[in-house]
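User: I'm preparing a small set of examples for a lab meeting where we compare how different chains pack in three dimensions. I only have the primary sequence for this one, and I'd like the structure in token form so I can line it up with the others. Please keep the answer compact; I'll paste it straight into my notes.
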Amino acid sequence: MQETVRLTMAQALVRYLGAQYIEIDGRQEPLFGGCFAIFGHGNVAGMGEALYAERERFSTWRGHNEQGMTHAAIGYAKQYRRRRMMAVTTSIGPGALNMVTAAGLAHANRLPVLLLPGDTFASRAPDPVLQQVEHYGAPSTTVNDAFVPVSRYFDRITRPEQLLASLPAAVDTLLDPVDCGPATLALPQDVQAEAYDFPRVFFEPRLRRIRQPGLDVHELAAAVATLAAADKPLIIAGGGVLYSDAADTLAQFAQTHGIPVAETQAGKGSLRADHPMNVGSIGVTGSTAANTLAAEADVIVALGTRLQDFTTGSRALYGANGPRLLAINAARFDGAKHGAQALIGDAQVALDALSSRLDGWQAASDWQERLSVARGNWLSVVARVTADDGTATPADSQVLGAVNRAAGENGTVVCAAGGLPGELHKLYQTTGPGSYHVEYGFSCMGYEVAGGLGAKMAAPAREIYVTVGDGSYLMLNSELATSVMLGYKLIVVLLDNRGYGCIHRLQEATVGVEFNNLFSGCQTAAGGAPEIDFAAHARALGCEAEWVEGISGLEAALGRAQAADRSYVIALKTDPDKATAEGGAWWDVPVAEVSERDAVTERRGAYEQNKQRQR
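Assistant: Understood. Below is the structure token output for the 615-residue chain.
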């Protein structure tokens, strides 16, 4: 007879997670780095008791905001390149709903996080309970149904024994190279506390490995033929390069065959910035080098990228009769985009297979010369726009240049929404995988500080540089206090341009006015918008903090921050109107077809002309 152990559903869940391991570079490590938790009446008695019982073997981390701690969990997984992850538990109602935005972020970025929101009673005996949203015609519906469209796997556990099937399926989803994303198990609070005789074998340690999908021989042969016939190929490196641990393989492949490599936001850092084949960022926030070569290429290899609109210039970057597109991707869904020729499989496996079959082949010599010249010209632009010109209110590019210089070989820059990701994508000189951590699949304001915390937890030996605008900081800053509480130091560079500078510039480009973005264009009381003392606020959260002026002041403060023993916030005023003019490509943002203002009518005409270029 099978040996069993009697546990509550919550106890079984936590014990199972603690028994999962992953192999990383020949070492066995726990798959889960623990569980972020904010307790409430929907999870404190069940999950809280279970986590307490396992506290010596399975860490519980306390956050200050449910969205923030979920961002931290996602940042942890991203910095680990999807090889380790976290769970997150919340109470029912508002606690659970606060996680939905973060679930959308994880889904868009294909990042693993196990979400464990509390739920209302499965028995419905005390309904309606505190924080329960009642649907009169659908009594089984709860707020947790909002997770369905932003989860890769979703289940509501209404009996303890359902864990036996659902929990392994959730973990398998988190580790799957194709379906990776958030897995959600909604946990009714009464079921969390119910006991069941679970098979002991369910809790035996299990070593996990991430699958590397192989290649179809016919697709591989066709891909070899396409590349062998190319004179001017270009590779676009996406996040799949990093997640398949293929960065070194790509560097060798590009060097051997003389192929320039451009990078997406998720793929930036696949090659070191000083690699001779690296031509920088691609697309809307792309370098002049990469975008020019993309327009001239005869074959573009989309390697591990989902070809988002910023990557393709809203499908207008390559032109109606542009290059042949070869998509190498673990996901069939992504490989079929834009009418591409597909090679479905792992990026590293594909590069190895292609290289062995392309022995002796290289891109045309004049194309390689073109690569070198374009790269050199772009690096000159980078040096110029990131240099200190002595202004008291510098441009974002100059601030990021100072951060880049301070970060050196062992720094990691973290960012998310607004104008900063675009400048970072164009200008930041990476030192390889792990040095660049920008969330731009969801472009979620508020990710920066919390994501930085998760990155630091994943890579404690690295100095983490969080770059954040005043708008994002005001949206979500509470995990600064968590970083101090847990002893995970962040260096936060806060650029105060008195509003939403990125959207201000987009509004000027599409509407021709300033309205409701900068504080100067908003409705305010007679005294105007407040002057926010961000340094004082950060000190109130337990950080060291200071205001500085200009790049020289920032550079001196960065030295003090590096020497500090806790999170350090540096705030400075920046110019909301300045952005790097060089590089970039068109982005499809519809302009009003009818307006009383000539400025809008003119912009609509330019918009319609650009629409004609869409592939």
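A couple of notes for your slides: The longest helix spans residues 365-385. The chain has 24 helices and 23 strands.

User: Perfect, thanks.
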